[in-house]
Design goal:
The chain is mainly α. The protein is 72% helix and 0% strand.
Length: 158
């Protein structure tokens, strides 16, 4: 187990497992196949059931590129952990709501475009309140680029 690609992959996630958690997550991910280095949606559900909601949320962040963007911004702007967590909550919820709007059809209606615009404006105001104007502006630009490049990268299968 120690030298498998799956074990290396799980250690690379920067999540503070206790020994029992590591063994359980390893068992779930390794069940996907030899040397698994991705996490399927079904495995995520099993990991959530094993870790519980609070620990799973901490685990999930380690795989979420949006959280990585916020951590990078934190190093640059000097945000506190609570600011990063609150901004992550705002961004994650906003991304979820954007996906819900976009699922309504391949071509956005006038109403969908207005809903997207209003949502993004509210997200920008919330980020400015949490992080300050300069950081919010920089993060909003990064999020826009992120959406345009990959339309929101998620864990395999989502």
């Amino acid at each position: 187990m120690r030298t498998s690609n799956t074990a290396h992959f799980l250690r690379s996630l920067d999540f503070a497992y206790d020994e029992q958690e590591f063994r359980e997550v390893f068992r779930i991910v390794a069940a996907q196949g030899d040397n698994a280095t991705t996490i399927s949606p079904a495995s995520l559900d099993s990991i959530e059931a094993s870790l519980g909601q609070a620990r799973f949320e901490a685990f999930y962040k380690t795989r979420d590129p949006l959280f990585g963007m916020l951590q990078a911004a934190s190093r640059h702007f000097g945000f506190s952990t609570s600011q990063v967590d609150e901004a992550y909550r705002v961004v994650s919820e906003g991304e979820r709501r954007l996906r819900d709007i976009d699922r309504r059809g391949p071509i956005l209606s006038v109403e969908q475009k207005a809903a997207r615009r209003d949502l993004l404006a509210q997200q920008s105001r919330d980020l400015e309140r949490i992080l300050g104007a300069d950081a919010a502006r920089a993060l909003t630009m990064s999020l826009s680029n992120f959406r345009n490049v990959g339309n929101g990268v998620r864990i395999v299968g989502q």
